[in-house]
From TrEMBL:
GO terms for biological process: glycoprotein metabolic process. This is N-acetyltransferase domain-containing protein. InterPro entries: Acyl_CoA_acyltransferase (IPR016181), Glycosyl_Hydrolase_84 (IPR051822), GNAT_dom (IPR000182). PANTHER family: O-GLCNACASE (PTHR13170), PROTEIN O-GLCNACASE (PTHR13170:SF16). GO terms for molecular function: acyltransferase activity, transferring groups other than amino-acyl groups; beta-N-acetylglucosaminidase activity. It comes from Hebeloma cylindrosporum. Residues 3-210 form the N-acetyltransferase domain.
Amino acid sequence: MTLRVRKATSEDEASISRICLLTADAGVSATALHDFSELPGLVYAVPYVKFPTTWGFVLEDESTRDVVGYILGSIDTRAYEQYVAEHWWPALAEKYPVEKAVKPADIYYANLLRNMHTAPDSNIAFSPAHLHIDILEAYQKRGWGRRLISVAVQYLITQGLQGVWVGLDPRNEGARNFYKKLQFNAIAGAPDGNQMGLRFADFKLSSGLES
């Protein structure tokens, strides 16, 4: 198995949406939870290969050319939130009316499109940049998550940033442990215990940057 990391493009939309769905239920597949299976990806993945202030890299299996993981984010979370509030959520809210949703997960997302959560001020004070990372189960626990974080850190440093943060699903202890190993820590002043941030100086000191 030979994998490589490359920049994400708009041509990866379907692949990253699929990966998002297959990891959306606290790290496992959410397929059975949805009639509208595209909703997790439309919220948490696809916008990051379409809009200003965003960035992304994908993990590709070179033998099949399949995208099997991604790391996506924004270098300016508040600007990103404003842009998608104007140019993305309204059209999706019209396309997915709450009254057409039956399954609880679809109802949740349909309501979310009408009242999208925004980052706590504590997170923005820590860093304007945030990320999402997901890898298909068959490719996990092989060091590729760390590799994707390394690539993202190197990119964000070139953008003049000193840190990045991530929001966690409180049920996903595996993700929490992964971030802790990479020197992510709870963000001071965050309204819950599910916001973690990485100072790049700590990452270089404790984990190193891969070439």
